[in-house]
Amino acid sequence: MPEGDTVWQAAHRLDEALAGRVLTRADLRVPRFATADLTGRTVLDVTPRGKHLLTRIEGGLTLHSHLRMDGAWRVYPTGERPRGGPEHQIRAVLGNERSTAYGYRLPVLELIRTAEESRVVGHLGPDLLGPDWDPEEAVRRLLADPSRPLGEVLLDQRVLAGIGNVYKSELAFLAAVTPWLPVGELAPEVPPRLVATAHRLLEANKDRPDRRTTTVRRPGTPLHVYGREGRPCLRCGAAVRRAELGDRVTYWCPACQRGPRGDSPDPRRPRHEGSGDPRRPQD
């Protein structure tokens, strides 16, 4: 599933291609909206909200889309053949005299009134890349249920909007705790520091072609633990582990991160705790 920085980049590309221009082509390939005619209307802006994309159109309309696991928007010069996948995977086409955007494999695509956007994004927590980012509210929501595992809370978009599976694993590593540790067991200084780190990382990566959470410049080391099962931890050298947290794969270092382990019979009752200290400064 795309992370908030990826969605921000998609919104930026769409906004550059469509905003301020009149639609000369508009094709929504979902039965409910297949007859909607948006041609002749001006696209006002394309705004990300967490992992949601809101394309606002003249006349008080918003095209709401969500990429989920493998959706994508691709932009090509008008008249150029799209190459984002087979034709039957295209669910939306928005074009003007200069550029045309194609929405591939979009699991969520609906046309709503702009005044009703809260219906689809009003449940979201503070947006890590939004103009109204509120770190204090983010911390409050993070700690609202002390019994929930940290990794589960980080993926809950009602808590923080924009964190996906990659940042979940990376943030737990940087906090030196396992993703299975209940948030109520975090040291008092960890939640605000973790929230600040999440904001800093997404802000830093929203303009980068390749996501990076480390300061290590060796090839193949942009991330601390995600996708690095069996490889040495960049900090201590221990083998990075992989396990499931709910229905998501999770990566962690058994030496640097303290707390319950996902490969234990009961992750809330660990067989071993790492030597990491959640109070130490982060990278």
From TrEMBL:
Domain Formamidopyrimidine-DNA glycosylase catalytic, residue spans: 2-101
Reaction(s) catalysed (UniProt annotation): 2'-deoxyribonucleotide-(2'-deoxyribose 5'-phosphate)-2'-deoxyribonucleotide-DNA = a 3'-end 2'-deoxyribonucleotide-(2,3-dehydro-2,3-deoxyribose 5'-phosphate)-DNA + a 5'-end 5'-phospho-2'-deoxyribonucleoside-DNA + H(+)
Composition-biased stretches (Basic and acidic residues): 260-283
Enzyme class: lyase
Boundaries of every FPG-type domain copy: 224-258
Gene3D superfamilies: 1.10.8.50, MutM-like, N-terminal
InterPro entries according to UniProt: DNA_glyclase_Znf_dom_DNA_BS, FPG_cat, FPG_N, H2TH_FPG, Nei2_N, Ribosomal_uS13-like_H2TH, Znf_DNA_glyclase/AP_lyase, Znf_FPG/IleRS
Listed transmembrane segments: none
Cofactor needs: Zn(2+)
Entry keyword DNA-binding: yes
Domain of life: Bacteria
Cross-referenced Pfam families: Fapy_DNA_glyco (PF01149), H2TH (PF06831), zf-FPG_IleRS (PF06827)
EC number of the protein: 4.2.99.18
Region span, Disordered: 256-283
UniProt cross-references to CDD domains, sorted A to Z: AcNei2_N (cd08971)
Entry keyword set: DNA damage, DNA repair, DNA-binding, Glycosidase, Hydrolase, Lyase, Metal-binding, Multifunctional enzyme, Zinc, Zinc-finger
Family the UniProt entry places it in: Belongs to the FPG family.
Protein name: DNA-(apurinic or apyrimidinic site) lyase
